[in-house]
Amino acid sequence: MKVITVPCLSDNYAYVLVDEKAGEVSVVDPVEPDKVIPVVEGTKLKLKTILTTHHHADHAGGNQGMLKAFPGLTVYGGDGSRIPGLTSQLENGAKFQLGSLSVQAMQTHGHTTSSICYYIQDAAQRVVFTGDTLFVGGCGRLFEGSPQDMYTSLNEKLAALPKDTSVYAGHEYTRANLRFALSVEPDNQALREKARRCASVDCTMPSSIGEELATNPFMRVDQPDLQKATGATDPVQVLAAIRRMKDSF
Questions:
Q1: What is the pTM of this model?
Q2: Which residues, in sequence order, are CB contacts of 124 under 8 Å at separation 6+?
C-alpha cells in the first residue's frame, strides 16, 4: 500500500491510494479532478473507487468530474442525500475490500453528522483517512455535531486504533493547530518537538495516532494542564471549551 498526497485548492488534500498487489488505485476526496487524474494516470493502474469523507464541497465537489472521466466508479460515503455520485452508503463499522486492502468505515460525527473515517490495512501498514474530523494537532469545527459527538469520534473511536496507524487528514492546518495547542499546553515537550519539526516542512502528512495522543489537545482532554486551561474537569466539557478557544484563536 502506498499513499500519494495531492494538494488541492488552498489547503486541502486529496489522496491516491495505491494497491500494487491488486493492480488498482482508489482516491480519497478528489476535489480537483484536474490535479488528481494525472496522479492516477501516473500509477498506470486501474482506478476503481472514490472514498468520500463527508459531503462538504471542498471534499465531495470533485466526485462528478471523476465519474465523468472514469465512468462506473464505486463511490463510498456516509450520506446518500448529500454526497454527489454516491453508490455505496456506509454504516458505522462496515467492512469491505479494496483489492488486497481491508477497509473499515468509522462513523465520526462532530464536524458533520455523517462523516466517515476510513481505516485501511494491508499485511504491513495501517492508515486512516480522517477528513475534517481529526487534523494534525486539531479537529474540525462542530458545524453539525455536538462536543459529545466529537469526543466519541476522537477519544473513543480513533484513539482506539493502533498507535502506529498513519493519519492522513483533509487539510494542511498543522502549524496553526500546533500554535494553538502550545497556548493551552506549553509544557508538553512532545508537542514542542512536533511544532519544531513541522515548522520546516510544507506537507505534514502523515501523522500517527500515537503522535496525536501525545500532542493533540482534543485527544488529551483528560490531562490536568488542559483541565486547568479550561476550568473544567469533565472531558467532554474540556473538549467543548478548547474548541471554543480555538474558534477565536
A1: 0.97
A2: 1
